[in-house]
Design a protein that fits this description.
alpha+beta; single chain; Pseudouridine synthase; four-stranded antiparallel beta sheet
């Protein structure tokens, strides 16, 4: 799968493993819980367990249906993760009496007037410990992190989205083109993998365009891209790395309404300040497409046969927050901590630094 990296540093080597003692995730809820209401809210820490398995365990303990349990998002299986779960208050006594597994720990409990819904989170805090990184690479790692904090990164879907063989999107494409209604969560997941694949390919192309503009004089960039010379000169004047086109579907950042880019100078100024970001297409039914020049670039990564799922827009560019590193020269490990908005992948940030895939089959 093609992925173009945005930054120009030399690849940085380190050992990454997604395990319970090296990969930590903490969910940040969208709102504060009131402490009162008919729903029990649990802050749960789990290890080596997927969210779907966690729901099954909780439902069995509480003697309720899985569908009665609310959660904001899926969390990695091979990690130590903390997330919030809701269920009707009437199940509290049964759950607390029966829940008995060392892989699940209730950290806090409170109450709220309504259940937690999918997507009801600001994002996630990550803490990742990387091994086998020498002093030289640790300094380079820290330098790149400083740039990423300031300028952001492309918001690729991570390898987790595409299955163990990284090819689940091929099954998704076949299902999407079959014309049949989706059967069950598995088929829906496969088709969404295909949506994600198309998004990643579009984003890689856009990063490639931006690198070509940044690394070449206008005339050479014009030849390479086969763009009108006037357009290339306009793009070259934009101060930021990721170049914007007329007709982009922009979004207020980190959340807010979407709108079309018409005045590029005005939008560029806001983008540089991190107030707005361009979005990419997750093709499907009932979704806003880009217009004009941006649509021309987007169209080749659209699939009008994919109508079995609703489409969406996704941030093309994100800004990691609270990004910091700590190096242990004795053990040659580096600990990196940061916050990402919901739906973004920590492994994508690491791959931007490594300039290669960190997934090992």
């Amino acid at each position: 799968m093609r992925k173009t990296y945005a930054y120009s540093h030399h690849p940085i080597e380190f050992d990454f493993k997604q395990t319970v003692d090296r990969f930590f995730v903490k969910e940040i809820p969208l709102y504060n819980f009131t402490g009162k209401g008919n729903y029990l809210i649990l802050k749960i820490q789990k290890q080596d367990m997927s969210t779907s398995k966690l729901l099954t365990v909780l439902a069995a303990s509480a003697k309720c249906e899985v569908g009665e349990i609310g959660y904001a998002g899926l969390k990695d299986k091979s990690a130590t993760t903390t997330q919030y779960i809701s269920l009707p208050k009437k199940y509290e006594k049964e759950l607390l009496k029966n829940l008995d597994t060392p892989r699940v720990k209730i950290v806090e409990k409170t109450y709220h007037k309504s259940p937690i819904k999918i997507g009801a989170l600001k994002g996630n805090n990550f803490k990742i410990i990387l091994h086998d990184i020498d002093v030289k690479n640790s300094k380079a790692f820290d330098s790149v992190c400083n740039k990423i904090s300031k300028y952001g990164i492309p918001n690729y879907f991570g390898y987790q989205r595409f299955g163990e063989d990284s090819k689940s999107y091929l099954q998704g494409k076949e299902i999407a083109h079959s014309g049949k209604r989706l059967k069950g969560a598995r088929e829906k997941l496969l088709v969404s993998s295909y949506q994600s694949y198309l998004f990643n390919q579009w984003l890689s192309y856009r990063v490639e365009i931006s690198k070509t503009i940044a690394n070449n004089p206008p005339q050479k960039a014009t030849t390479k891209l086969k763009f009108p010379q006037e357009l290339v000169y306009m793009l070259k004047k934009q101060p930021q790395f990721f170049k914007l086109f007329i007709g982009e579907v922009m979004s207020e950042y980190p959340y807010g309404k979407e709108f079309f880019a018409t005045d590029i100078n005005k939008i560029t100024s806001k983008f540089v300040k991190g107030l707005v970001v361009p979005t990419g297409l997750l093709c499907g039914d009932r979704v806003q497409r880009a217009k004009s020049d941006a649509r021309y670039l987007e169209e080749r990564y659209d699939d009008d046969e994919l109508t079995t799922l609703n489409g969406d827009r996704r941030f093309a560019w994100i800004y990691p927050k609270a990004l910091k590193t700590s190096y242990n020269s004795k053990n040659q490990t580096i600990t990196v901590e940061f916050f990402l908005p919901k739906g973004s992948y920590a492994t994508t940030l690491l791959e931007e630094i490594a300039k290669s895939s960190i997934y090992k089959i």
